[in-house]
Structure formats: C-alpha cells, structure tokens
Amino acid sequence: MPSFMSRVVVPAYLRITRANQPFLTAERAREHIRERTIRPQPFAPPRILRSDIEISVRREGGWPIYTLTPRSGRARGNVIYCHGGAWVNEVARQHWELAADIAADAGTTVTLPIYPLIPFGTADQVIPAFAELVRANRERYGEVCLAGDSAGGQIALSTAVLLRDDEQPSVPRTVLISPALDLSMSNPEILAVQPEDPWLGREGGLVLGESWRGPLEITDPRVSPLFADFTGLGPLTVFCGSRDILVPDTRLMVEKARAAGVDVDYVEEPGLVHVYPLTPTPEGRAARKVIIGALSRALTPARSPR
User: Fold this and answer.
1) What is d(CA 54, CA 182) in angstroms, rounded to the nearest whole number?
2) pTM of the model
3) Cα separation of 133 and 146, whole Å?
4) Which helix (H) or strand (E) segment is 91 a member of?
5) Which of 101, 152, 198, 298 could form a disulfide with 82 if both were Cys (CB 3.0 to 4.6 A apart)?
6) What residues contact 271, with CB distance under 8 A and at least 6 apart?
7) CB burial readout 250-282, b (16+ within 10 A) else e
8) Domains (ranges, CATH) in the chain?
C-alpha cells in the first residue's frame, strides 16, 4: 500500500495548489501558455542546495547551461538532466535537488540546460541541440548519460533515439521518470486512468504537445518517441505511477523496447502520481536511490579481468 504521504498528502497538495488547472481544458492550456509567455518563470538554482556540490553556468547558443560538480573533485562522466514542466514551465526546485543528489552521490558532473520553452522552443530545434550537447560533453567528460522527467523524459528519450539514428555510440543509461511518449495521446487506456490522475489531463496535454511539435509530425520520434524503432538503444531505467495518464504509454514503450532487445529496468508503483520520484515521500526517496545507483554503475569504468 502507498505511504500516507503518497496516498493522502501529495494528492491533497496537488488539489490545493490547483496543479491540474492547465491540463483540464484546451482553453486553460492556451491561457497557461500565454501567461508563461508574458511572465516567464525564474530558472536560477535555489540559494540553499547541497553544500558538497559546486554550481557553474555558461551560455551556449543562447541557452544557460548549468553544471553541478562534486566539491571533492572526484567526478567521472556526466549526466545531462532534462527538466520537466510540460514544455512550458521552467525548472523547479525538485529538479535542482535531484540534480544535486545525482552529482554528489553518484560522483559525476550533472549538466542542466535551460532550454527554450513553448511557444519559442519547439522539438525540431531543442532535440538536435540536446544531441549536440551530448556530443560536446562526451569530448569533455567521457561517458554521458541522459535523465529526464515528464516532458524532460520525452526530450531525453528522443535525444537518445536521434543519437542512435546518427550512428553515435549508444547512451550507457537513460533514466525516464513518468515520460511523455506519445503526444497524440491516442491510447484509449488514457481515458480509463484519467479519473484517478489528480495532476495531468488529456485535453490540455494535447494543446501543449501540439505547440511543442512545431513543424514536425506528431508521430515524429523527436516529438513522440513511442513511435521510434528502439533497436540499438542503450539501457533504460523507467519509473511511473499508476495514477498517471502517462502510464499506459509507458507500459507500451517498455514492452516495445524489451522486444527490440533493449535492457529495461521498469518500476511501476500502484496508487502513485505523476513524477512520484520527485516527491518528498518514502517511495520518492527509494526511487531516487535507484536512479543514483543506476547512473553511478553506468558511469563506472568496467574493471579489466585479472
């Protein structure tokens, strides 16, 4: 059974804060895009974060690119974290905290790009830029993993697919937290889950996805990675809760990836909400430990046999 925090407190918080408002109807989604366009959110890291990491920032192609590094000076490889927020909301404190935990506890550098949001940023521009960042970070750090939640999960998986299509080395581990996988939201099982989801909604989600795709078709893997051929992708670690309208597509993606020979670790928690690994719950803490362990192992050089 889910913990009291996950079962009662988190859904109550979502109701009180009206987190689902931009997703309830198409018009509310359009209003949310207009509001975020006129009044952009801040994206700077919290003033108080872990004391054992150091934060720096640079600009590339107009994007602020943040790097979180362990103060110990002992770091191996790199993780690029793609933050969620329905492609319209800025990076949140929970994203910064997870990025800091990964840097410190996995002993790696974490790159957190502040990518352009809709209506100014669209998939046709953003996904190739993430792929180029992976290439650059390989030159700088060696092995590079990808991670992302929700909309950021879409970006992470689409980037891994694009790199594979460009015949680049496979990403050694991609972590997906409640990823958005099919922006057409055509899976009929979504409607069955919708009454249980206190956060996301199909009608608003369709508007946000339509804005994000830009000139690309909705089934283009740079927009909806569920439609990709997964052959040759690196290993995946995937999380989703059953009270999430994205869970039906997540199940399909896991099945399709495994059928293509991809190594997939999938954790589905019954009764838990969207992006539950980012929540301050026992289940969230357990998931974050799994994430850090998976990334740490992926970035640890294999020992030569004696």
Assistant:
1) 36
2) 0.96
3) 11
4) none
5) 152
6) 1, 2, 6, 7, 241, 242, 243
7) bbebbebbeeeebebebbebebbbbbbbbbebe
8) 4-299 (3.40.50.1820)
